[in-house]
């Protein structure tokens, strides 16, 4: 179970985060037949690391991470739509998966609320006991009333 300062992330955010982690793992898999292995390893580490950092930001409820994921997904959709020589399966993955992540982050009300609500702090929690004016439990009471008045 994943708990943060804001509580447990909603299911759509968890699903989008899982997709980001899968993408990070997929980025680390080397492409066979690539002559420039060093460049591929460097790109895999950078892309995979970025995906993991963004996934962590999604879990924490970071709005900047959400919008970076949306922008990167839009770039992936453009790349999948304009890349020549892809099979239907590859094109579907390059377009469908980023669109699913964007949909999971922007459409459900629970996802939008997750990124807009501030984290709950100990001072914003309601107290179970109310302080009554004029009682010894409330030392900040400005009234000089410390007992029954003379007319009562």
Summarize the structure.
The chain is mostly helical.
Mean pLDDT: 79
Q: Give the SSE string.
A: HHHHH
Instruction: Assign a percent range to the helix content.
Output: 55-70%
SS elements, strand count: 0
Specify the biggest β-sheet.
none
Q: From the helix content, strand content and strand pairing, which structural class follows?
A: mainly alpha
Structurally, the number of domains stands at 1
Radius of gyration: 26 Å
Beta-strand percent range: under 5%
Low-confidence stretches: 121-128
Termini distance? 58 Å
Shape field:
elongated
Number of helices: 5
Notes on the structure:
With 152 residues, the chain is mostly helical. It has one domain. α1 runs antiparallel to α4, α2 packs across α3 and α3 packs antiparallel against α4. It starts with 10 loop residues before the first helix and ends in a 36-residue tail after the last helix.
Task: Offer a few descriptive terms.
59% helix; elongated; mainly alpha
Show the helix and strand layout.
Layout: H1 11-28, H2 37-60, H3 63-82, H4 88-106, H5 109-116
């Amino acid at each position: 179970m994943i708990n943060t300062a804001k509580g447990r992330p909603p299911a759509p955010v968890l699903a989008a985060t899982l997709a980001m982690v899968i993408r990070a793992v997929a980025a680390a898999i080397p492409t066979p037949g690539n002559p420039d292995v060093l460049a591929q390893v460097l790109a895999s580490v950078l892309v995979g690391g970025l995906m993991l950092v963004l996934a962590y930001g999604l879990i924490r409820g970071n709005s900047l991470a959400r919008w970076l994921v949306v922008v990167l997904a839009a770039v992936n959709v453009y790349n999948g739509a304009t890349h020549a020589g892809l099979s239907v399966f590859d094109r579907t993955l390059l377009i469908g998966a980023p669109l699913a992540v964007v949909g999971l982050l922007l459409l459900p009300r629970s996802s939008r609320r997750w990124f807009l609500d501030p984290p709950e702090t100990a001072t914003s929690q309601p107290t179970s006991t109310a302080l009554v004016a004029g009682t010894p439990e409330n030392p900040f009471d400005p009234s000089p009333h410390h007992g029954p008045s003379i007319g009562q």
